[in-house]
Amino acid sequence: MNTSEKFLWIRAAGLIVSCSLSFGCGEMSSSSPPVAKTPLPTTGDIGEFKPDAGQEIVPLDAQVTDPVTGPLEILKKVRIQLPTLQIEHALNLYNAGEGHYPQTHDEFMTQIIQANRLTLPQLPPDLQYQYDVTNHKLVIVRATDGKIVE
């Protein structure tokens, strides 16, 4: 194969690639419905934090110990951290507007959660979201005696 034949083959291959990229490789049916993502289970159940109730606060920082499962552990933590950051932001906005943070659990539920239509991802059965009225923040707690948090 001489140089001009190689050049023609290269141009033909380039033309095929550019046409494929421009017009697509195959026909796509416009009548096929889009694939729906399954929504993650959410909860609106947020208890009131009581420091003397024998519960431990679960830290939200991700500890990666295994390079294979590490990204999954981070993803689980981030899935919980993002809504808690929304709540923290809503609390700060409420404080700026009202001059105080919610002073009761009921006020937190109505003025922050319901007013902003916030939902939180479902937690495992041994964990629960709770609002710490004293420190003005949402925490995740685990019962230290191994029982399910109520």
Low-confidence stretches: none
Computed structural class: alpha+beta
Largest sheet: 4 strands, mixed
Taken in chain order, the helices and strands follow as HEEEHHEEE
Strand content: 15-25%
- Ends: how far apart? 80 Å
Q: What is the C-alpha radius of gyration, as a whole number of Å?
A: 26 Å
Helical amount? 40-55%
Major sheet: arrangement of strands: 2-5-6-3
* Number of distinct helices: 3
What form results from the Cα inertia axes? elongated
Round the mean pLDDT to the nearest integer and report it: 75
Task: Tell how many strands the DSSP assignment holds.
Answer: 6
Summarize the structure in words.
The protein has 150 residues and is of the alpha+beta class. The chain has a domain at 42-143. Helix content is 40%, strand content 15%. The protein has a 4-stranded mixed beta sheet with strand order 2-5-6-3. The chain has a two-stranded antiparallel ribbon with strand order 1-4. The longest helix is centred in the middle third of the chain and has 29 residues, at 70-98. The termini are far apart.
